[in-house]
Amino acid sequence: MLGSTEKRFQGMSRGLVGLDGAFMKGPFPGQVLTTAGLDSNNGIYPLAYAIVESENTASWKWFLENLGDDLELGINLNYTFISDRRKGLQIAVDQLFPNVEHIYCIRHIHDNMRKKWGQTEYKDHLWRCASATTIPEFEHLMKEFSEYDKEACQRLKQIPLVHWARSHFSGRAVYDVLISNICEVFNGKIEKGRDNPVISCLEFIREYLIKRICNVMKAMKKAKGPLTLTSTDILNARKKGASQYIAKWNGANKYQVTGALQDQHVVDVRNQTYTCRKQELMGIPCRHAIATLNDMSKDPEVELDIYKWVHKQKAYSFKVDPIKGRPIESERLNKRQKASQGDGVNEMQGQDSQGPTNDGVQKLSRKHISVT
């Protein structure tokens, strides 16, 4: 686990946790289990990592139990997990966090089904259905999908909608992703480290995180205004699109906002709710909200600040502390030296005991002993 994980996770406050596993490389067995979230610039924010013998229910339960202890997550956890449908993971999540929202990577769903349905049209239908933010829109797109290929649509419906259709997500997490690439990106960054012995691999990851946090902090300082670079770009693009929308006030706290192609939704100003659900799911004002703010700004008695409608985060308030220890290269050198002496040790394994060493310590026999 990373230092100050619980404080950093609360600072991130987007409620999304990605889970993934990756094989160790070279002669070293095992798998690296990782968990990461999204920072306020839509970049990966690693939370914890561990090396286990294999990926199964037992290893995922151990990992999630430690993660829960470190983040102070109770059984009534109200966050969202996103992952591939990995071996043993769903069982572990259901047992430890029965109330969590668990999202499946839509790309992984597509990969599992494209052996039979590999056409580009199938992929397009799948992504449109998964990306819909409202249930009426989703049902309309699923009807189109069924007309294209009824069997494929029925196969997709076998996966509970709450696991892959954005229109059925709770909105408890603030994010705009349907694939589990937050951990996949992290695993790609530590790929070279996975070719090392266990301790060296863990040190490689820790030092990568130190550099990453510093680099991201430097990049965020370049942002002009209260938002990060990515959030600013998204908001500016939506401001331009909002000019094509017309907001009509109902005389109370709601607005009817209409755009092209029957894009009409309701904005509740008092409760800050939006029937398009994009604002709630993504944390940045949608075009309907911006059009509403534009109309409200015509009233001189109304003081508006669009940034108050943006989800707040401060993930990089906490750092990964450096530690004192021997360099990784020294460890690798010692490992190679020990390996070169292995033949001499193997020749002595069949003897019941060994004579005293130079420092007077008696070596014990390894005969009839199982070593794991």
Explained architecture:
By secondary structure, the protein is α+β, with helices and mostly antiparallel strands. The protein has helices at about 5-10, 55-70, 90-95, 105-115, 120-130, 135-150, 150-155, 180-190, 200-220, 230-240, 280, 285-295, 330-340, 340-345; strands at about 15-25, 30-40, 45-50, 80-85, 100-105, 245-250, 255-260, 265-270, 275, 355, 360-365. The two termini are about 25 Å apart. Residues about 340-370 have low confidence and may be disordered. It comes from Lactuca sativa. One of its GO terms (molecular function) is zinc ion binding.
Summarize this structure as a short list of keywords or feature phrases.
disordered C terminus; MULE_transposase_dom; metal-binding; 15% strand; five-stranded mixed β-sheet; 14 helices; 372 residues; alpha+beta
Rg, nearest Å:
26 Å
- Main beta sheet: strand number and arrangement? 5 strands, mixed
- Measured by DSSP, the beta-strand proportion falls in 15-25%
- Indicate the structural class: alpha+beta
Shape annotation: globular
Query: Strand order across the biggest sheet?
Result: 3-2-1-4-5
Proportion in helices? 40-55%
Q: Give me the strand/helix succession.
A: HEEEHEHEHHHHHHHEEEEHHHHEE
Number of helices: 14
**End-to-end gap:** 25 Å
Q: What is the strand tally? A: 11
Oligomer classification? single chain
